[in-house]
Amino acid sequence: MRLLRGGAAAVLVAALSAGGCTGLNPNVASPQIAVPDAYKGKSARPSQHPAGSPYDFAAFRSKKLIDLIAAGRGFNLDIAAAIARVEQAETQVRVASQALIPTIQADGSGTRSFSHATGRAVRGDTVVGQLGASYELDFWGKNRSGVASAMASQAAADYAAATVAITTDATIATTYFDAIATQKQIDIAKANLAIAQKTLDAIVARNKAGTTSGLDVAQQETLVANVKVTIPPLQRQLEQYKHALAVLVGRAPEFFSWRADDLYAIAVPQIPAGLPSELLCRRPDIADAEAQLASQRFLVSKARAAMFPSIQLTGAGGFQSVALASLFQPQSTFYNAAAGLTQPITNLVELQATLDQNRAVYTELLATYKKTIIAAFQDVEDALVAYRKTAEQERLQREALQAARRAYEISQAQLQGGIIDITTLLSIQQTLFSAENSLALVRQARLESAVSLYRALGGGWIKPEGVTLAEVPSLIDVKRATP
């Protein structure tokens, strides 16, 4: 590296005449990655649902779910922590910006002396008041790179907070669907228990009449007991889901009130997939990775600029007088100005190592950024497959349930007529109970697949007009909803 030479004044003139060097090119490659033109599972159906969480969830037609999402936006502690990290990043921008502003200090002093050289006491007063300023001329762009890096880090914190908000939305919705599906399973188990108990009573009556055996009674009693034993674990799960919902909305479980929809009363949204370009404009985790990459690029630039000379400008001016009364007289004024140049020599190895380290970190973040994009497409494809296949599975499961109900109704009539035995009825009952429970689980999976797609697409199912990078949901809305 060439060592600059010359007096401080010459350096100052050259710096001022040049107007500063850009210094913001870190000499690292811009990220490039190939993306597909369309999703494999893209839906061509248009959607009329508005975007913008939590109102996207209006597509489920559940006011209780929307209320939970809104409460989570306002009181979830993970979101509150994310907002605090945004504020921390904002302060770092202000700290970094101070390097672009001259440092000014005010000093004042006064001294008093006595002399007896003439045989009598003579008092002398000296008063000084001055302002001093120092400024590092950002000729190589080191300080500007630091500010740009801090601003990119602030943007990354913003996007990270939006990611937390989207994740919280999805977690609340998924936990709510888990809870109401569990409640539906409890209701099904209780209804099936009533059916099994009614059948047991009929078999006991027939046993007393001598038309059935004790084995028939024991078999039906076993079925009743097996249905009963499924209820307590479901009730335990329901309570745990309620506790989880309480924490997600920032409340202690003791203060959380439970209101739930019926599982089948919740609508499944008709969702278009959109295009990959829209995904890149929506997902805040991708924007977060890109902002971190940009921040590191400027750190590389800052480390590179640190290897060049540092130019310091200093100046001081004020008043000095031997008498306070004449402190601000013209003859009491003084000033001085200087320019200095500091060239790194002994620590060049350390500076080069710092530059190499920052470049290596950039390479790591570049790989992470590319992986984030690829993983985003995987998330969408997986969610689309789940959304499509669970819809097909629910349709088939409803057909299976209808067949099981018809078989059960026929078996009851045939049992009364003595055409079949109790063993056949037990088998048909168990098939019916299993089909009802399976339908509830499939419905739950279908609702949750819609939530997964909401999350995979960056916080919504469509991209509204005029929405820019990672603004769905808007972090401003998150901040406004946070107490």
UniProtKB/TrEMBL annotation:
Residues 1-20 form the signal peptide. The keyword Metal-binding does not apply. It is found in: Cell membrane. It holds the Pfam family OEP. One of its GO terms (molecular function) is efflux transmembrane transporter activity. The keyword Lipoprotein applies. GO terms for cellular component: plasma membrane. Gene3D superfamilies: Outer membrane efflux proteins (OEP) (2.20.200.10). It comes from the Bacteria. It is a lipid-anchor. Its main location: membrane. Keywords: Lipoprotein, Membrane, Palmitate, Signal, Transmembrane, Transmembrane beta strand. PANTHER family: BLR4455 PROTEIN (PTHR30203:SF33), OUTER MEMBRANE CATION EFFLUX PROTEIN (PTHR30203). Belongs to the outer membrane factor (OMF) (TC 1.B.17) family. NCBIfam families: outer_NodT. This is Efflux transporter outer membrane subunit. It comes from Rhodomicrobium udaipurense.
